[in-house]
Input
Amino acid sequence: MDIKKYQGVIPAFYACYDKNGNVSTEAVETYTKWLVTKGVTGIYVGGSSGECIYQSTAERKRILEHAVKAADGKLTVIAHVACNNTRDSMELAAHAESLGVDAIAAIPPIYFKLPEHAIAQYWNDISSAASNTDFIIYNIPQLAGVALTPSLLRKMLKNPRLIGVKNSSMPTMDIQQFKYEGTLGGRDFVVFNGPDEQLISGLVIGADGGIGGTYSVMPELYLKLFDLFKKGELETACALQHTLNNIIYKLCSGKGNLYAMIKATLRKREELDLGGVRSPLANLFDTDMPIVDEAVTMIDSAIKTFIG
Output
């Protein structure tokens, strides 16, 4: 495994829609190329930030196809392929492999609370449909309703394609535990920090990098934080993390969904139009625009303070 291609800042890719709420492949390509210019490590396509549970398999395929095309080998591409049934998930996994993505990822099945052996079978079935592609477990218990445990991870480590965990649980100790289990015997194993509000904590305890839902709205600041960490400038890195968290709290304070707020911020700061969000997620309300303006000011101020 080329571990370096998974280290660093990997934005969770936002869903891109036109004015009628349909997937915009033009916006997908524009957005991807914009991220290339920002210098991020890669993109995580089709996850929570990509509104995957509100999209058809055909839409998810189109988004990934155009993201891979626009990335043109300049970004690590991780495709989240999980659906709430094995057959569709395997179809998306095979499609992702045909495009040459670097890795596929999957949350556990949601709604029914399945035993660990059934979750492992689900993940292994998905991996078998892309048998030449790295596989990453996506642990997000607060939304999936199922948590990755050390015993389940040990079951999955029998799969030679498993190379890491995207960990979006809140306890940072989970990162350390998964890293420990995954690297036993000298095996290379990647753990990504998921919660954006604790990126510096995740890196300190052993995360190789981060995959985050607010990275794209201010990639310069997350790249700076990662650079500060690598240089050992932890006091400044913590100050930047606190600033990032205040911006995140501001973006979460609107009546509209977080990703609607983020997309409005991108339109204002970068003239990057990714559309709105898909129902039942709430789009912007008139009262949200002053909050968006405040977020833009906060981001610009942070860039001036920490980057110059």
Observations:
- The domain at 3-218 is CATH 3.20.20.70 (TIM Barrel).
- The chain has a mean pLDDT of 97.
